Amino acid sequence: MASVVACPSCGVKNRVPLSAAGKPRCAKCGADLPWLVEVGDDEFGSAVERSTVPVLVDVWAPWCGPCRMVSPVVEGFARERAGSLKVAKVNSDTSPQVSAAHRIQSIPTLLLYVGGREVARSIGAKPAPQLRQWLDAELAAHPH
Q: In what residue span(s) does the Thioredoxin domain sit (predicted)?
């Protein structure tokens, strides 16, 4: 299923797919679009493991207070790093296979995938500057 995203450059609404061979660009102006998707058990492989760009996976649940604190920061990364990072949100309540396969025991858990494999993880709610520093360091350590 695709989501609809407004282009940060020209404001035109575009459909952004869960997975694609490249990265989403605006149909009107060609600017890179934020790639923020909701992924479940069935789509995880195609949307995350076969992604052509690094993927930050946010494993969360609607009832989780710390998850709600981290979510805007993580979603902001999708906007800030349009064209170079995909953010995939996984609801642990409705995606038990993803949670089990990754041995998720605490949420929020952030998984960073580069080249189809998990290269780093961050567990628990952390302040925005700390999450940004972690993400920057891990992306630098695992170039794609």
A: 27-140
